[in-house]
Amino acid sequence: MGRRLHNLGRFSVLQPPPLSPLRTFFAVALLALALPGVAGAAVYTPKPKVLYHDGHTGRYLMDGTWYFRADPLDQGLAQGFERQSSLTGWTPVTVPNAWNATDLSDASQRGGVGWYRTDFRVPKAGRTVSWVVRFESVNYRARVYLNGHQIGSHEGAYLPFEVPANRITHSGVNHLVVRVDSRRSETDLPPLIDQDNGTPGGGWWNYSGILREVYLRKIDRVDISNFLAQPRLPCRNCPATVVFKATLQNVTGKREPVSFHASVGGLAAHFKPVTIAGHHSRTVSAKVRIDNPRLWEPGDPQLYSVRASDSIRGRTVGSWTAHIGVRSIKVRNGRLLINGVPTTLRGASMHEESVGDGHGGALTPADEKSMFQQLLQLGGTITRVHYPLPPAILEMADRAGVMVWDEVPVYRLGEDQLKLHSVQDKALNDIQDMIDRDQNHPSVLTWSIGNELPSRPDAGQEEYIKRAHSLIKSMDDTRLMATDIAGYPSIPKQIIFERYFTALGMNDYFGWYPGPGGQLVDEGATGAYFDQMHQFYPRMALFVTEYGAESNHDGPVDEKGTYEFQTQWMTFQNQVFDQHPFINGAIAWILRDFKVRPGWDGGNPTPQPPYNQKGLADQNGKPKPAFDVVARIYHNIQLAGAARIKAADARLHMSQPPAP
What we know:
Helix content: 10-25%
Number of helices: 12
CATH topology of the largest domain: TIM Barrel
Radius of gyration: 26 Å
Oligomer: single chain
Number of domains: 3
Mean pLDDT: 93
Low-confidence stretches: 1-37
């Protein structure tokens, strides 16, 4: 793994020495000769447009015409695709793009190599401005080329990375090329391991390509490379403190005097000016007190606007926006307290996939909005997936009061993988990138370090847990640290869980899967298992992070795979949850059906592979009969939660002395 840029992503950057003006002229001339046909491609100038609003300002959406070329034999590097001028073999596409969105073959799941290219002009900017290219998600390995030269590389999906556009041409057309390699191994995140029958594995479909949007981002001498606005609330009726922390990176070769400014809800913090040496960074921090704060919580998600900027000699050179919520997350005797009030959450997981319109894993803003609105129709107050959600969905959750079980794609790795420091390092980098990206979102409830890792942690997993705990504690101790486990009654208490986690997610499939030795056959054993886990971990917040049953047709209520069975099973599970108040939240798996892998049956006697059909809606978003039943249950939970908040506020009001 290479060095970091702005703490976003893993990549290596090739930075040649600067060229003299004369050499620059000849280099550009030679490049123009080498790429004579580039002018035949569509050329555009990125506009100051964003698909999510918080974060860096100065982002320009690269939503012009892109071109795609498959490279099934992996010959593109040898044939110089990154320098190719002709459009022969290239197909116009829009980005985000999953090139295998409709391909259900084994080869599609295993992944392959594809190339993307786009031609653009740089937006008008001052002479002190430099540029980076920001990718929100590329699956899985990316090499980035600008004007025929490699400028960076990156490994891993679902999190952003940036590469410096040092080879950019300010006065002409720029040629950006990205080689994407989606072939994954057993040591990647998530891993892809062949099944016993030789077909490719995986927990969800291996969509290949540039799966989220791309930006050109402007930097004027000193960049705000990272910014934190962290609220701290000692008690429900206490004043709040917002802690500001920013990392300022000088991208020039000379010393720069920098002033930093930040405010929340119009209240300004005061920072000491700093001088930053060339190609160095400094961290600045300050605090603001908010008396009588408006609180963010499910049912009443009050947001505060945050503005931050840095300036050099009085001129603003960079800025950042955020919308934060003043709220506290604590656990007392196994109960989740949001702002001091016991809180029960219900929801469904969402998977980044849109099948009906052929987008696959490359969602449009309309796809994201449609999926999130359906979660709200369900009455959901929490959601989860096996990787960090797109930033736009996090912003929707902030505004709607939906909490997010934020998780890195450390999915079902075995001890052989977890004992490798190279794998642990990938996972820890993902955790750091997740926190860096999501730390200002009030909707984020947990930092979850993985799903269904070995049930009895060995040395490798134990070391990973300890390292993850140290990293998370150093970055953000205001949220829950969690892991998600397969819910098996035969697993004894794990001391390491009790020592390092504040929350535990249990994946509950009693009465659906048989489980090892048939221990999950009886759905009536669900409650006893919950009691056992609460006895094991009385101080931890317990959640059900998955529960679900497949359905794709009408039939008898006792026949697995029918809508009737799913409805009865989901109803029974919710009754058990209600009988155990220490179950702080339950997240259905899943909101909508989605593709898993070739041959998937999911325990369904009448499967329709590759689809996981545990959704409360089908792959096109059409609700199944269980949807309305679960929605009624969830909305009742919401009403009960609102009543608890109202009662808590009434008690606080009565306990306060009268005004003089």
